[in-house]
Amino acid sequence: MENQTTVTKFILLGLSSDPQMQIFLFSVFLVIYLITLGGNIVIMVVIRADSHLHTPMYFFLFHLSFLDICYSSVTVPNTLMNFLAVHKTISVNGCITQMFFILLSGGAEVFILSAMAYDRYAAICDPLRYMERMSKGICVLLMSGAWTTGFFYALLNTVFTLKLHFCGYNEIHHFSCELPPLLQLSCTETLTNQVVLLTSAVIFASTSFLLTLISYIHIISTVMRICSAEGRRKPFSTCSFHLIVVGLMYLTGFFQYTKPSSVYSEVLDEIFSIQYSVLNPMLNPIVYSLKNKEVKTALRKMLGKLKFLK
Question: What is the architecture of the domain spanning 9-309?
Answer without folding.
Answer: Up-down Bundle (1.20)
